[in-house]
Amino acid sequence: MDDGETEVTLTVNGINVTRRVEPRMLLSDFLRHELGLTGTHVGCEHGVCGACTVTLDGRSARSCLTLAVMADGMEVETIEGQGTPENLSRIQKAFHDHHGLQCGFCTPGMIMAIADLLKHHALETDEQIREGLSGNICRCTGYVNIIKAVRELAKERGPLT
Amino acid sequence: MTKPDYSDVTMRPKLVGKRIKRTEDLRLLTGTGEYVDDMQAPGMLHVAIRRSDQPHAKIVSIDATDAFEVPGIVAVFDMSDFEGECEPAVPTSRMKDYYATPTWPLARGKVRYVGEPVVAVVAESRYAAEDALEHIRIEYEALPFAIRQVDAVKDDAPLLHEEAGTNVIIKREFVRADVDEVFRTAAHTVGGTFRMTRKCASPMENRSYMAQWDKRRRSLTLYTSSNIPGVVRDVLSGCLGLSSHQLRVVAPDVGGSFGGKGSLYGEEMLVCLLARKLQRPVKYVADRLEDIAAMSQAFDELIEAELAFDDEGHFLGLRADVIGDVGAFSIYPWTAALETVQVISFLPGPYKIDAYRGRIRGVLTPKPPTGPYRGVGRPSSTLAMERLVDMAARRIGMDPAEIRRRNLVRDEDFPYRTAPGIIWDRSAFRDCLEGACNALDYPRLLKRRDRMRAEGRWVGIGIASYAELTGIGSRISVAPGMPINTGTETANISIDSTGVVTAAFGVASHGQGLETTLAQIVADELGCSMGDIVVLHGDSSLVPMSSGTYASRSAVLGGGAAALTSRTLKAKVLAMAAILMDADAADLDIHEGLVTSRTSNQSMTLREVATAVYNQMGRIPRDQRVDLTAQQTYDPYLGTACSSTHLCMLEVDPGTYGVKILNYVVSEDCGRIINPMIVDGQVHGAVAQGIGAALLEEVIHNDEGQSVAASLADYLLPVATDIPDIEIVHIEAELPNNVGGFRGMGEGGTIGTPASIANALTDALSHLDIGVDMLPATPERLFQLVRTARTSERATI
Lengths: 161, 797
What we know:
The structure holds 2 protein chains of 2 kinds. By secondary structure, chain A is an alpha+beta fold. Helix content of chain A is 33%, strand content 16%. Chain A has 5 helices and 5 strands; from the N terminus they run ββαβββαααα. Chain A has helices at residues 27-34, 90-98, 107-120, 126-133, 144-157, and strands at residues 6-12, 15-21, 53-56, 59-62, 75-77. In chain A, strands 2-1-5-3-4 form a 5-stranded mixed β-sheet, with helices on both faces. In chain A, strand 3 and strand 4 (59-62) form a beta hairpin. In chain A, helix 2 (90-98) packs across helix 5 (144-157). Chain B is 28% helix and 24% strand. Chain B is globular, with a radius of gyration of 28 Å. In chain B, helix 13 (514-526) packs parallel to helix 14 (554-581). By secondary structure, chain B is of the alpha+beta class. In chain B, the strands form 8 sheets. In chain B, strands 3-5-1-13-10-11-12 form a 7-stranded mixed β-sheet, with helices on both faces. The interface between A and B is large, with 59 and 55 residues. Chain B: Keywords: Molybdenum, Oxidoreductase.
């Protein structure tokens, strides 16, 4: 049957998922509407604000600029794969401790971007931390407390090996 | 370890004043929050909106025939389809010479700005709805327009609302003493033209609405990303002809507002009409382009102002003529006077100035309406006043901190009535100035600046002092004579049969952390533990009258209502406990959910008291039994003065004209602090927005009436590399006659920042004799200022 749809198979937060989707369907819409993972937010649809950030095979990506079919065969991690209200992930806990969020809308994307930063970026100076965070816009916090949280996480992690 | 002795009430640890981590964090951190776009309902339809691409035009015809070819399309509506089904929202006012433009769900007959909603497409998916949009043909007949306020204000300018008979829909003047005479005789005067261009509030979540029609109860529920659900309920029930019990307005998790979501929007009306008409749930979520194009915008006044002063730097008189560009509509409920009139009401700032004349004209132009944006009016008025103050200091060779010290209202002058009639009372005006200067060691900072300058660097220091009125009570309206009361707030607190405390409010937290701070107050005042409290807010059905969270009011009014209601409820709990414990209520107290007696070893948990009241018949005599519920309303009447001084040092790159902020300190008095962590967060965020307004953010409409900014790549919001570390000094001045002693503080940062940066930039460019009077000071604007200065320098040599 040619309904114009394409089959896509990917891993989302460790779970295998197969769906038929329109080729134009954005990964953000796929996660939010097909899978009900509404923790990934859409703020600008242009890849500018970073609210929709997820990781694809461990590297941060804009799910609003990625088609679901492009993620075929990949491992997608979303905020739902981080931690739960009862058991926050380390990054989530650092945000909680340092008041790194207010309205919470940019937070999932920010956390997913930081998950990548902690794995792949030096983050030894505030300059590097600010640079690393500059792809994610937060309108509430002025970044001050987010930087504090990342400072703590980077210190805990130590230098990249 | 010995247990602390809390028998003395004053020794007990209080939650108010502590850095309590936020209870709302857990859901928001884990993606389990629920914003409107996260909501699903069976059979839900999606709306996409075709917006005007014309600034001012008559709608000749709309042809949607081809749109129906798109798979998934359900219906297409224009305003003619809703005739007789709704009344417009009219932002009335008692102001003289005011015209209240009606707000309809879609354009009616003509369009008045690029981005105005014209046609609604309803489809099974958002993708289908957007596909269909492109197949709608709208024929317009272009009408003349004046896009700039200086043109729109002229007598022969084309009219945007013919019914008004003029584009000038607001006129207001405040006068005290013979200001012209003061200017004639004053030793010195300075003056200039000051301007903050248009901004977009730009919360990260775009506006999102979902309406559901309940056939069984013939009622509507609107889920909206609004910070004023109560106001929306009140006005929409009238517009839609529903009694208020047929309309519930709920603001679930809301992804920021900063004022942008604090007015009624036609799209809110639209989804309600569609849900009722189609008898299916209907969702509309704006995309970023739509919110940049059609969310209420900020500022945009042209301020001509002058200050008269004597040889010692004492201010003698101030006069200003302001033209506010209010856009195409007067916004509901605030009216176009909200932003504009506040510019002249707050222009004299925290200073003692006897003679004043401030005039404003608010003029219609084909742009989105201006509305509330964090700081409202005062970022503009503070820019003008603080620039004048610095110009005066420079004129007589006085230090900018010293001239402020000489003119700030002194403690002995409180309550001080400003010329426009605002009463400043007991706020730490001067302590804030000293606090900022001490924090950065002002004398050393000046030396550091001078050393850097000696190296040829463009470094400058800027100060801005201001005062704001927060937590406004019923005595004053946030805009003169507008259609709603914003001066009261109600709390309804009940203890159920299991001892759980439910505290319901009319406020609508959207990032402020009110679920935490209000619970802190209730816990302290009622004597229960935080964990036993559920705070409900953002729902029009919770309390009889509510408006929402805006205007730095929720800590003052919501907090005050929480305290008053908790005290009443505590008296009931103790009265019931006294019966149960056979004690005198005066001998009992309750702390962390445990009622204890000062005269015996007896104690009871709150749960035991509640169970006895509700479930254990006979333990309390019938005629003495009362429900453990209370509801009270708090009205701070005048409101509270909040003051602050910002001090910063920055550097301009002579190659790129980029600005780097080297130091930033905010010294502020917001009274008693409920949660220092949250207060600091509010200051950081507001300063960041102030930095955006000062250096980056600008909505530009070109001569054709088109907005040049179409995405966040054009409308630049500050990112982490733009914001410095922000130092904060808190001065908690005591506030008499105020429940709780709280002052509002959510907006302040945006008020002082643009002015302090403008003053610092002017200082940094002082060798070129440049005044930075228009913001944002983008690299382009700074380059032009420097180029003009150098050209005229050469010309005079």
